[in-house]
Amino acid sequence: MDRTSVKIVVAGGFGTGKTTLVASVSEIPPLTTEEILTEASLGVDDTTGVESKTTTTVALDFGRITISPDVVLYLFGTPGQDRFWFMWDELAQGAVGAIVLVDTRRLDSSFPAVDYFERRGIPFVTAVNRFFGECDYTEDEIRGALELDPKVPLVWCDARDKESSKLALITLVRQAMARLKVKA
Amino acid sequence: MSFETWDGDDESAAGRFVPLYVLVNGRTAPRDSTLDLATQVVALSVDTRRLEPEYLEIVRQCAGWISVAEIGAYLKLPLAIAKVMVDVLVEQGYLAVGTPAQQRIFDKSLLDQVIAGLERL
């Protein structure tokens, strides 16, 4: 009796369509799970000497795709705020790789995600979300702005469209396989 | 009863008056470090009568294979708490654990299966 889980991370800046992409392919409506963080307060003018702490809730959206009776794929969207890097570490650990969604109106908002996966050697593909209308940039311009390695695939997508999201996911898994062959 | 030998059982059978951190005995991380959000667990057919209501709720969610993240989402438990509680249940023989997502995937056949599964969608 066994069940293997496989993870794919869906990353990108705030409002790039991460949950939309997860929803388009997930067999369940995306679920939200929360992590509660305790942060030391940034206030420095506290004269009582009593440390004050605040709690922050980080929400993670995720979806599920049953691959076979023994294998289930989970798609985890990264928290919107870039400062929760430690959550990214947990999500990326053991993941096949990541899809980095790019909003052409704010190319720079996806740069931290590209940088994160590149530094850690985690396979990823960039998916330029066309949801926001016609793209004013060419592929080369986007690659340049994100300083993408030529080996990193770039796909055009509409995160609302199931076929388009499937293509981005399949491109990622193929990219992970190609890496496997190089290492072997 | 010392805290070291605490077994998930105490006298308060009333509702959620116990803070979550007490429920997990102050533990902040699961002992089995491979337990992650996507790891699947399933209930084993054992006597659950001694379980605290909060733990029993988790076991009930696990009638079929389910991930730690789904348990957290359905029961509205913070992930760190869900993970520790699942770990306690695994340790005490109430739940079985599936193969976690691997640190590095070297298994080509697994990736082949994933591609085939995605194509079928």
UniProtKB/TrEMBL annotation, chain A:
Keywords: GTP-binding, Hydrolase, Nucleotide-binding. InterPro entries: Gliding_Motility_GTPase, Gpn, P-loop_NTPase. It comes from the Bacteria. Gene3D superfamilies: P-loop containing nucleotide triphosphate hydrolases. Pfam families: ATP_bind_1. Belongs to the GPN-loop GTPase family. This is ATP/GTP-binding protein.
From TrEMBL, chain B:
Pfam families: DUF742. This is DUF742 domain-containing protein. It comes from Paractinoplanes aksuensis.
